[in-house]
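Slack export, channel: ligand-projects

TW: morning all. Re-posting the request from yesterday since it got buried. We need the structure predicted with the small molecule present, not the apo form. The ligand is zinc ion; the SMILES is in the block with the sequence. No rush, but it would help planning for next week.
GE: picking it up
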Amino acid sequence: MTKPRAALSLMYLLLLARFAAAQAPAASPHPVVLHAARMLDVKAGRIVSPAEILVLGDRIAEVGSTVRHPSGAEVIDVGDRTLLPGLIDSHIHLFLHPGAEDLQTVQESVPERTITAALAAREDLMAGFTAERDMGTEGAGSADTAVRNAINEGRIPGPRHEDAIGYNPEQHILPNATYANSADELVAAMRQQFKEGADFIKIYETGADSIRDGKLSTPYQYSEQQLEAAVKEAARLGRHVAVHATGEPGTLYGAQAGVASIDHADQLSEDTMRLMKEKQIFAVPTFTIFEYFAEHAATPAQGAHEHQILDLKIQEFRKQIAAGIPFAVGSDVGPFPHGTQAREFVLMAKYGMSPLAVLQADLINGAKLLGWEGQIGSLERGYLADIVAVAGDPLQDISVLSNVTFVMKNGVVYKK
Ligand SMILES: [Zn+2]
Ligand SMILES: [Zn+2]
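GE: finished. pasting the full token output, ligand included:
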């Protein structure tokens, strides 16, 4: 009895997969030529004008001031706008929404949170973010892999997706993340999470944060050796580890262990910055969440504390730029409304980077961090057709990225 039934359910799954594939919004069956007043060449750091892109299926086939117009091509003229690669957010939480960050993870059921996450994915895509790295569900287990798969199969609209799961010592309401108390437990938790579909692992390395004598104080959770064991285990499967790490010595341990990114990175020692530059470990500052918390604190005392941390972060960011460490752009959207995270570009520019440097960090470094180098992050022949448009010139005024008015992902137009 058991065997035929097992075979039957396998068949059913295969049928479901086929059905899902049939439902996916396909890239246009005919060639598409995008025409615009301008286009960003992010690698060269210049604006091309006028601009045309030929899209065949889900790929970019040709890019230039003029391109081939094959017979039957549909021309989409976006007029006085700038075409640029789909934006990348390297630090997001689809499973979080504004409001108590810890309480929502226990008051709302996982099915409810999954529906909210699917809606959040749509918001992010419509805001021009065509690829994202999801830093964990905070208690919804591997439900994010279901959302990712549905997006990748084209069943629901959303950005390309990388997923993680982690343990969070800062949250007061439990249980909302996976615990691991030793290198062995870390490896065991990671194996389970990879089995459930995680693309990478995010580890809460530091917290909770306080400021003492102008210095950030934050206890570390794992030693360098423990993080090294985690990095090794991830590497075994060709995956990477990211750390939530705000300050020393946790950030140094992460850099020594060879993590792919240090997220938040409020205060970094000279040694840490040297290693990050050497090993090309990305700092992901996530200014937007710090600004949001400072402006939406529950009490004046809490607000003052958040402002103090933000001020320190701004001051340290200048040192990090001067030290030449590589950055990626991640907003930590979720605790603040999905679809509004282009604010991160504005803040990184405001606190010391040129608009071009911010865009290169977002698109070139973001593609590397997400493991899609050579596929996304640039408008080039052979790249996936993830293309957005904004009014104005983002190299002159980066805030134009807050108003993306055209979105194509994988050759499919979602907004125009
Ligand atoms: Zn974090
Ligand atoms: Zn986060």
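GE: first-pass observations. The radius of gyration is 22 Å. Residues 22 and 368 are 31 Å apart (CA to CA).
TW: perfect, thank you
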